[in-house]
Amino acid sequence: MDLIYKIDPNIRVILKPLMFIVIAFGFLIFTINTGFSQINKQMTKLQNINDKEDMLNTKLNILRNIQEGLLEYSNASLIAVPDKNPAVWSVSSLRQSIYENDLTLTKVQARANASNKNLFNVTIELELKGSLRDLVVFADSLDKQAPIVKKRSMEISREGGKYTADIELSTYWAELPKKIPAINEPITSLSVKELEILVDIKNLLRPDFDVLEPQQDSLRESPFLE
Amino acid sequence: MTKINLLPDSFRVKSSSVRTAELLKKIYAILFVIVIIAMSTSIGLFYMYKTRVGEAEERKISLERQIKALEETEQRLILVQDRLSKVQQISEIKDVNEGLGVFEFVLDNSESKIIIGNVTVGEKSIEMQVSSESTLDTFQFISMLKDSQEFSDITVLSMNFSPRQGFATNIALMKK
């Protein structure tokens, strides 16, 4: 306490307010540093949440708007490009079309090809007999059937006034998507072009059956019983 | 009554020092007010943003719940988009559709005097054999193909004559 009285009174008189100024200044620095950095954190957090909220709103609107009719589109698209080898369905559709066009099927062969994991394909070779016009009409009709088939080659030969066509077709299948995006991930809506393709897919002729049901064992009667 | 300062001169404070001290007190007062304003502003802003963050978080959770309820729709949308990408991939694979179109044109426009024999349909072209009883019929047929303006290239690959078949001509047609 005596020490303070040893200081020059001219300095002592300004020392007290000076000390308060230093303390107040310290408080100000602390407030700016701590307080405003906390506010900044909250603002950043709010901005992030608002961005996510906008994204979720967009996602919700897409899902609500698209809900109608999507069931039918998804079924049609799964028949157009199935998740299993579609050779049986394709051959069934082909036989129906061959019958409708008055053609005779003399050979049919299907073989699976080595392809990438993304899209698998099966080659179907047909040998058909009939009139030239019917063969062309049949080949045209292939574009309108599901599962989708591609005409890879076509050769027509004429012998004894009758025409035989050798047609090589490819039909495709792909595994189902394995995961859906996380709830916080954005999704995109269907474009006008995609909707047009979907309408085309929906209008494709479907096979008579699109599910291969396992057959129940039937009771076998003993031939030795009277 | 006269005031007498009993303090020794060494303890007397200069008036300039007193003025400086007064000035410092005023600065301190102003600084104190600034500190109070800054503190109350920052506390106020902090709580305001904290409340807004809480409200936004609640809205986000509510949206997530609504999206979760539409999970089946989302699954279907992902499936449709996946299948569409596959359809687009398939559409890029080469086929003989255009070549078949060429052949259909020939079939629609050929006269009965012309008999179409073997045909190989390519991506944009066809090779075919046509037979007729006279060369005139074949030339008229080729002339019709030329006048149609449908083809970029018409090539006569070979021409044979046999008494049984007549004039057999192999023609290659390339779509324009």
What does it look like?
The complex is a heterodimer of chains A (about 230) and B (about 180). Chain A is α+β, with helices and mostly antiparallel strands and about 230 residues long. Chain A has 6 helices and 4 strands. A 4-stranded antiparallel beta sheet of chain A has the order 1-2-4-3. In chain A, helix 3 crosses helix 6 (about 190-200). The model of chain A has no long low-confidence stretch (mean pLDDT about 85). Chain B is an alpha+beta fold. Chain B has 2 domains: about 15-95; about 95-175, General secretion pathway protein M, EpsM (Gyrase A, domain 2). The chains are: A alpha+beta (about 230), B alpha+beta (about 180). Strand 3 (about 150-160) of chain A pairs antiparallel with strand 1 (about 115-120) of chain B, so a sheet runs across the interface.
Question: Mind sketching the topology for me?
Answer:
The complex is a heterodimer of chains A (226) and B (176).
Chain A: H1 2-6, H2 9-66, H3 70-80, H4 87-100, E1 104-112, E2 120-130, H5 132-141, E3 149-159, E4 162-173, H6 192-202
Antiparallel strand pairs in A: 1-2, 2-4, 3-4
Helix pairs in contact in A: 3-6
Chain B: H1 15-69, H2 71-91, H3 97-109, E1 115-121, E2 125-132, H4 135-147, E3 151-162, E4 166-175
Number of helices of chain B: 4
**Which structural class matches the secondary elements of chain A?**
alpha+beta
- Spatial order of the strands in the main sheet of chain B? 1-2-4-3
Q: Give the largest chain-chain interface (CB within 8 Å).
A: A-B, 79 and 71 residues
List the defining traits of the structure above.
heterodimer; A: alpha+beta; Alpha-Beta Plaits; 4-stranded antiparallel beta sheet; 4 strands; B: alpha+beta; Gyrase A, domain 2
